[in-house]
Amino acid sequence: MYEHDVLVVGAGGAGLRAAIAAHEEGADVAMVTKLHPVRSHTGAAEGGINAALREGDSWESHAYDTMKGSDYLGDAPAIETLCKDAPEDVITLEHWGMPFSREEDGRVSQRPFGGLSFPRTTYAGAETGHHLLHTLYEQVVKRGVTVYDEWYVMNLAVTDEPDPRDRSCHGVVAYDVMTGEVAGFKARNGVILATGGPGQAYDHTTNAVSCTGDGQAMAYRAGVPLEDMEFVQFHPTTLPSTGVLISEGVRGEGGILYNAEGERFMFERGYANNAGELASRDVVSRAELTEVNEGRGIEDEYVHLDMRHLGEERIIDRLENILHLAEDFEGVDGLEEPMPVKPGQHYEMGGIETDENGETCISGLYAAGECACVSVHGANRLGGNALPELIVFGKRAGQHAAGTDLGEARLTTGKAGDVEEGEVDSPVALGEAGISDEAVADGGAATLTDPDEVVEAAVEAERRRVEYLMNKDDGIQHAEIRARVQKAMTKWVNVFRNEEGLKKALREIRAAREDYQHVYVADPSRTFNTDLQQTIETRNVIDIAETITLGALARNEFRGAHWRQEHQERDDENWLKHTMLSWNNGEPELWYKPVLLEGEEKTYEPKIRSY
Amino acid sequence: MSTQEQKPKNQTETDTESADEDIIAASSPQQRRLREKRGREIESPKETAEQEDTYHLKVFRYDPEVADKQEPRFDDFHVPYRQGMTVLDALIYARDRFDSSLTFRHSCRQAICGSDAFFINGRQRLGCRTQLSDLEEPVRVEPLPHQEVVKDLVVDMEHFYDQMEAVEPYFQTNELPEGELEEQRQSRENHEKIKMSTRCIWCAACYSSCNIAAGDNEYLGPAAINKAYRFAMDEREGEDLKQHRMRIIEQEHGVWRCQTQFSCTMVCPKDIPLTEHIQELKREAVKNNLKFW
Ligand SMILES: Cc1cc2nc3c(=O)[nH]c(=O)nc-3n(C[C@H](O)[C@H](O)[C@H](O)COP(=O)(O)OP(=O)(O)OC[C@H]3O[C@@H](n4cnc5c(N)ncnc54)[C@H](O)[C@@H]3O)c2cc1C
Ligand code: SF4
Ligand code: FES
User: Fold this and answer.
1) Are residues B168 and B284 in the same domain?
2) N or C: fewer beta carbons within 10 Å in chain A?
3) Which residues pair with B173 in a beta bridge?
4) How far is A94 from chain B (nearest CA, A)?
5) Residue A381: domain span
6) What is the CATH number of the domain that holds B77?
7) What is the best residue among B107, B118, B202 to mutate for testing ligand 3's pocket, by most ligand atoms within 8 Å of CB?
């Protein structure tokens, strides 16, 4: 068994920042990650990172924009923490050498981004995430933090008390991809999940193949509620054939969207009379699909994003990477022609419920980054607000797990206090299909309390699972099951949603679960068995797809990224609340908790969101 | 070496469905655009592929643990072709439809994670950034040369990582400004100077292409030297550190090993002028009197 004070699962921006922070607080910290750190999907972020750095700007203004963008489903304490800490944490990146783009006077550049009232998106060309990821990894190397790379975390080692709020997390079980060894990792202080988003629940996505929602699914099955999962961001400018992202930076710099009739539809069709192309992402995505649905799309599929008028010099200076992406993945020369774009799955606003210190309701279990929901993004994330979330909350989680006192959190976690039971009319059974010994707390640690024993028991359970999957020699292969879920999600749980479609999706997900009962791994090898790894991931994809769809079916209103055909208005009276899903005896239990709109000094009043 | 033919398994309903989709996809506008564009550049291999509607891949297979894979071999895969398909797409297709034990690293699908550098038709390239239509058939996909093969297309990257980490690949400076919210100034020219060097995605294509690295296991190699360049040339680190960096770079297995063969520069998927950077460091070293030759 491996043992450290703090274990960080995942080595993207959030995980790396958490590890650095825990290390700076003197903890013995190790990272366990299925990809080598520099392969993490943070590297794909293009546009930039928001922080109120300049005169004329303020964290209050950033907080106001973020709250408005969230369609009033963000929690004020989380948003205020983000906006207050972001400037210092961004400057820290600069001090660690991050190659930000520069102004004439040598200071870091900032540019406008959708939904922001001040140009506060700090950037490094159109490859901000790449530089952020590498800069952070450099600091991890500098500090000599232990990294177990290409170790796949399969499960958490959590105790099994009836109420999740009484449980504790003592470590994780991981599988060494290179050798097939299944081993226990004990955490003396805490485990921080930083496993990124679940974009692979969809087939048209900007997310990497590795974004399978593992951390969310593992935390969920261990008893931590998943919050606001129905709020999935669809980015308005992805390349139609691959889902590769064309950064919002293009519109930030002045790029224009046209329909097939050559109309600048954001203005001419009245979708956003003030902000136009720079309206919030959900608004632009819906506008594009409406254009296509009403017959004004190009080839009935997409619209055009034109940046030619910016001129070659400016494009090469600030958006060069976009030229390569358009060329390599769509065959378009952005200097010569407009680029075809359509909405694609991009970001999961919801996730593992945490407080401002990154803690979940299970003691010793933290989450940060895209896998977490603290919640700063509410119903819709503003562009450039995910990267600051990684560093602000990654750092806080790392510090807290290392034992630093960050003051008491204002947000509460777990099902307690002011909650409301929810109901959803599902056409099929939900949750675990068939009998499973993992149906209760998914740590396999029934009634144990000694940390070593809890980890050992979890390791044994995972060894059995691997043996089972490896020994079974026929049945269904995971790729087929995963594809089925992805198709259903893209078809019915997309930008436009209605009851009928969502129910169809639930049926498909159920069918996938039943198929999964027969899943087997064909590759007999213990060496680098990606077949086994992906088979385990697919189970996570199914669980996550179900939470997204369930939350969407229950929420009878239109808020932020969640649009319902039958309910075209935001309904603050009934729906100003967070959707919570808990895994209860193998079944999702739906409940709601209030949104916290009271900031430190002021209360945010829900207003009509217009751009 | 033996050769095995892979045929699709029983076509299930989903298979047929997606086969239809493949046809639709083949005529979709972006496919057409790519086709037109590629058509301008390269004529021949594409034509035949279109007629047959499949692409022929020969993929290196090896697994130390599995009886019939202990002896390295090439497997043939015939992948239904759709315009715009990359080598990575084809490998994914082959794995998901024909043989789930086919093993290769990949993640981002957009040339940024650096996982999928392979030896494709005799050259180091990223699978996700290489269009099938730019290649002669059959397309040979092999693991990166000069690296130990773990399984199929997966090589052991440890040594490459060790070299990267040997150059103190992290920013260091004694010149941080006082104020907590005060950034270090950097001129645009200096930012421009290091820009290309900061683009490295650690794919190891360059390292694998380098004859010197193949012969001298301790040679830092192009990527690591480029990483050192990135910091040595960053004005924010200051003069003292630059001297320190130069000492690392001009060590026995450092820049002076490079024989300017340009193979690294040719294969780098991020177009980093590696050889130029190495040459510049050599000049810098001479200037600094750190090395006479
Ligand atoms: C194309 C694109 C562009 C974007 N552009 C921007 C932008 O301009 N500005 C902005 O603010 N945001 C942007 N975002 C959003 C932002 O980049 C992501 O939300 C963020 O990078 C996620 O970081 P993370 O650290 O949470 O996860 P990731 O970077 O995805 O890292 C996840 C880590 O977890 C590990 N992991 C996962 N599962 C396991 C497991 N089971 N066991 C072990 N390890 C595991 C992986 O190996 C990886 O290291 C963009 C997103 C995309 C996809
Ligand atoms: S320098 Fe280029 S080829 Fe070498 S590792 Fe970096 S990106 Fe790959
Ligand atoms: S898959 Fe990431 S670089 Fe090719």
Assistant:
1) yes
2) N
3) none
4) 6
5) 2-232+346-405
6) 3.10.20.30
7) B107
**ipTM of model:** 0.93
| A415 falls within a domain | no
3-state secondary structure of A471: helix
pLDDT at B290: 52
Over the stretch B78-130, which tens digit does the pLDDT of each residue have? 999 987 799 999 999 999 999 999 999 999 999 999 999 999 999 999 999 99
Which of B66, B105, B186 lies at the smallest CB-CB distance from A524?
Answer: B66
Expressed in angstroms, the distance from the first to the final Cα of chain B is 48
Q: Which residue has the tokens 């600069």?
A: A94
Do A339 and A377 belong together in one domain? no
Same domain, A264 and A227: no
User: Touching check for B227 and chain A: CB below 8 Å?
Assistant: no
Quote the pLDDT of residue B289. Answer: 67
* Whole-number Å distance between alpha carbons of B186 and B178: 16
The CATH number of whichever domain residue B272 belongs to comes to: 1.10.1060.10
Q: Tell me: do B162 and B134 sit in the same domain.
A: no
**Domain match, A80 and A194 both:** yes
The answer to whether the CB atoms of B112 and A244 lie below 8 A apart is no
State how far the alpha carbon of A338 is from the alpha carbons of A243, A281, A326, B8, in Å: 17, 20, 10, 39
Q: How far apart are CA B104 and CA B150, in angstroms?
A: 10
CA-based max dimension of chain A = 68
A264 is catalytic: no
CATH number reported for the structural domain that contains residue A330 in this entry: 3.90.700.10
Q: Which of B162, B195, B199, B201 to mutate to test the pocket of ligand 2 (most atoms within 8 A of CB)?
A: B201
Q: Closest Cα partner for A506 from A460, A553, A560?
A: A553
Residue A461 placed within a domain: yes
Pick the closest to residue A321 from B269, B160, B120, B267 (CA basis).
Answer: B269
Is A481 near chain B, with CB under 8 Å?
Answer: no
Domain span including residue B207: 158-172+188-289
Can you tell me the distance from the alpha carbon of B156 to that of B143, in angstroms, rounded to the nearest whole number? 10
Tokens of A597: 């709109």
Q: Which pLDDT band holds residue B16 (cuts at 50, 70, 90)?
A: very low
Q: Do A324 and B171 touch (CB under 8 A)?
A: no
Cβ of A240 within 8 Å of Cβ of B191? The answer is no
How many structural domains is chain A composed of?
A: 3
Residues B54 and B142 both lie in one domain:
yes
- pLDDT band for position B260 (50/70/90)? confident
The amino acid sitting at A137 is: Y
Q: pLDDT tens digits, residue range A225-234? A: 999 999 999 9
On whether both B143 and B50 belong to a single domain, the answer is yes
- A64 part of a folded domain: yes
Residue B14 lies in a domain: no
Neighbour tally for B174: CB within 10 Å: 9
A410 contacts: CB under 8 Å, gap ≥ 6: A77, A355, A356, A596
Tell me how close the Cα of A482 comes to any Cα of chain B, in angstroms: 11
Domain finish residue from A299, A320, A343: A343
Residues B146 and B192 in one domain: no
DSSP one-letter code for A203: S
Q: Which of B38, B109, B165, B201 to mutate to test the interface with A (most CBs of A within 10 A)?
A: B109
Regarding whether B164 and B126 lie in a shared domain, the answer is no
Residue A529 has pLDDT above 70, yes or no: yes
Beta-carbon neighbour count of residue B50 at 10 Å? Answer: 14
Pick the last residue of a domain from A405, A425, A447.
A405
User: For chain B, how many structural domains are there in total?
Assistant: 2
Q: Are residues A11 and A155 in the same domain?
A: yes
pLDDT digits (tens, 9 = 90+) for A310-326: 999 999 988 888 999 99
Q: Which residues line ligand 3 (CB under 6 A)?
A: B 88, 106-109, 111-116, 126-128
